[in-house]
From TrEMBL:
InterPro entries membership: Cellulose_deg_GH3, Fn3-like, Glyco_hydro_3_C_sf, Ig-like_fold
SMART domains tied to this protein: Fn3_like (SM01217)
Residue span, Fibronectin type III-like domain: 66-133
Enzyme class: hydrolase
Record's signal peptide: none
Keywords, sorted A to Z: Hydrolase
Organism: Chroicocephalus maculipennis (Brown-hooded gull)
PANTHER family: BETA-GLUCOSIDASE
EC number: 3.2.1.21
Presence of keyword Nucleus: no
Official protein name in the record: beta-glucosidase
Amino acid sequence: MENYTMEGRTYRYYGQEAPLYPFGYGLSYTTFQYRDLVLSPPVLPICANLSVSVVLENTGQRDGEEVVQLYLRWEQSSVPVPRWQLVAFRRVAVPAGRETKLSFQVAAEQRAVWAQDWRLEPGTFTLFAGGQQPGQRTRASSEVLSAQFTVTGAARPLRGC
C-alpha cells in the first residue's frame, strides 16, 4: 500500500458529503439552547491550552440529557486536515427550564497536524459548540455556536512543547 491518506476513507475526510448518521444524531423529548460561548484566551501561544465555556439551557417542558460537542476547524494548514475534528464532548442532564454552564479544556495536542511528525502550527482556528456537528441537519432543534481564536508563535514539533 502506497497511499496512506484517509481522504474518502473515513467520515472526517469525506469532503462535502455528510455521513448518514453523524455523531450526536437523534431525537429528544425536550429542546436545548446554547449561548455565551467564551474562548479564553482568544489569542494564545503555540503550546498553550484553550479554555472554553458555554451555557446550555433546557428550554423544553421535560427533563433531558444533551451531548455537548466541541469541534475544531483549522482555517489554514500546511497539510490536509479534517473539515472539523471532535475535540471534546460531555453528556449533561439538565432539568426542564434550568441551565448549566460547562467548562472544557482543548489541549495544544488537539491542534497538532501530521507532517512527518506531529507539529503545532500558528494560525486562526474556529471552535464549534453544540448538540450536533457543524452544518448537520436534523429534525431535533439544536444550534451550533462558533467562535474563532488565534495561535501565535513559530511552528514547532509537538514534542518541543
